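Worked example 3 (structure in, sequence out).
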């Protein structure tokens, strides 16, 4: 079997509220035996798409079933461009996931069977709640875990949601690793979150300085810390795992380097008593399907992020997996068990993929929080 063609689909996934410049990047790998594999890549999708086109010449004519060989070949092909960052890892991820899809289809088995076999038949997922009303709606639909994100009043939001949904729902707090969050800010927020029994406190500081994350973790040892969505490959996770800085790793399934890299990250984390909860906030349904297979096959899975109701095309662009009682069943069809509707992809062409900060936004981002930082951990009512 040989790879004959690699094609990409950049799809607009901009939400009416929230992230207004988001794209999904799907990858299609064709073979001379008529078996097609689908993958998904994230990490600045428009730029990653160019990287995938560059890598195509390296892969055409190769046997798609020799996945580790092709991953190493891609790594060597990009070596001259410097350290492998998120763009390079994202490009390899999209292609590598498609190769697993081909391998599974060629053998007539689901991908999870190739990753060690299923440990479980369904995967627990969590939804997103930016206010009490959304939290109550999701709990009413059966969700048992919620991530609550606020850049300005994170503790107040957790307080209000906990009071509204009770203690039977797991909550997570995500300040998004904002660059204006200082170590002192993150520690004060973490200390204020102690009483709410969080599943984890995600990205309390920006990821560029791992020592800062270590300081936060040391100051709030009874609050589980999660990090890693902006890291790629085993090399991007090695130090945070080996130094036992985090309690949960959350690699992004679209840019961590591929399913084998995530399997290796999970095994490294397992040896340190660290769980895995993949990030899915940037991704579409194919990356989510890949995550389902991975989490079915590793012992230290915790939970999977799921964006419910973000854009209508999430439910039409590819095979839809239903959330029932806060779980998604692991696909059992050969490969990933998901097929892409290319017509829907073409009906939603990708657009700009960066945020456009205004001067007022820049000033509010870096100056205003310093003037009123107490609201980060304040609780009223």
């Amino acid at each position: 079997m040989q790879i004959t063609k690699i094609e990409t689909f950049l799809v607009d996934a901009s939400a009416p509220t929230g992230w207004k410049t988001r794209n999904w990047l799907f990858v299609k790998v064709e073979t001379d035996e008529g078996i097609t594999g689908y993958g998904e890549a994230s990490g600045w999708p428009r730029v990653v798409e160019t990287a995938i086109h560059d890598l195509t010449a390296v892969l055409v004519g190769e046997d798609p079933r020799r996945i580790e060989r092709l991953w190493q070949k891609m790594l060597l092909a990009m070596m001259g461009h410097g350290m492998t960052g998120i763009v390079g890892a994202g490009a390899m991820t999209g292609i590598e996931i498609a190769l697993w899809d081909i391998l599974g289809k060629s053998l007539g088995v689901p991908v999870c069977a190739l990753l060690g076999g299923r440990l479980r038949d369904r995967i627990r997922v969590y939804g997103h709640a930016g206010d009490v009303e959304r939290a109550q709606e999701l709990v009413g639909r059966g969700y048992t875990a919620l991530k609550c994100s606020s850049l300005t009043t994170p503790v107040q939001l957790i307080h209000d949601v906990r009071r509204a949904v009770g203690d039977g729902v797991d909550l997570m707090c995500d300040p998004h690793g904002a660059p204006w969050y200082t170590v002192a800010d993150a520690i004060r927020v973490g200390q204020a979150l102690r009483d709410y029994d969080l599943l984890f406190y995600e990205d309390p500081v920006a990821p560029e300085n791992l020592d800062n994350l270590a300081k936060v973790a040391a100051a709030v040892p009874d609050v589980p810390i999660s990090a890693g969505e902006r890291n790629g490959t085993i090399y991007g996770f090695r130090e945070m795992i080996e130094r036992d800085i985090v309690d949960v790793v959350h690699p992004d399934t679209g840019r961590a380097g591929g399913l084998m890299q995530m399997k290796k990250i999970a095994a490294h984390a397992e040896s340190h008593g660290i769980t895995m909860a993949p990030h899915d906030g940037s991704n579409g349904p194919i990356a989510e399907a890949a995550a389902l297979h991975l989490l079915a096959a590793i012992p230290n899975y915790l939970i999977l992020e799921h964006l419910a109701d973000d854009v209508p095309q999430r439910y039409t662009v590819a095979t839809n997996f239903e959330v029932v009682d806060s779980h998604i069943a692991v696909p059992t069809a050969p490969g990933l068990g998901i097929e892409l509707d290319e017509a829907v992809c073409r009906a939603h062409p990708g657009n700009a993929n960066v945020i456009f900060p205004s001067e007022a936004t820049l000033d509010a981002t870096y100056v205003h929080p310093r003037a009123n930082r107490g609201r980060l951990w304040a609780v009223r009512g």
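Notes: The chain has two domains: 3-112, 116-334. Residues 11 and 345 are 6 Å apart (CA to CA).
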